Amino acid sequence: MGRHMQGLSVNATMSRASSTRGAPFSNRAPSTDRGGPRRQRGVTSIEYALIGALVALVIVASVTNLGASLSAFYSFVAGEVSNAVARTSN
User: Where are the domains of the chain?
Assistant: First the structure.
């Protein structure tokens, strides 16, 4: 068999075997993020805060619009009731 095993040289077999050993994820490029997980959590919490503020703004706008519509509706109903009472009392 000599220095060749099934078409591969001993050196190629050794280098292939050694490249699969070592730390998991050792093929990844080094991270440029200097803050690490803590910095990522900070960014995520800011994103959630912005989303929460946007949702609160939409709720306030909706409730304000609904309040104005309800006020107009109750004023209309009160006027109709007053007209109905005035017609029945004559």
Answer: 52-90
The pTM of the whole model exceeds 0.90: no
Question: Measuring CA to CA, how many Å separate 30 from each of 10, 27, 34, 41, 77?
Answer: 31, 9, 11, 20, 70
* Dihedral in degrees, nearest 10, Cα atoms 37, 38, 43, 48: 100
Q: Cβ neighbours of residue 5 under 8 Å, at least 6 residues apart?
A: 13
pLDDT in tens, 6-63: 555 555 545 444 455 555 555 666 556 566 666 677 788 899 999 999 999 999 999 9
- 3-state secondary structure (DSSP) of residue 90: coil
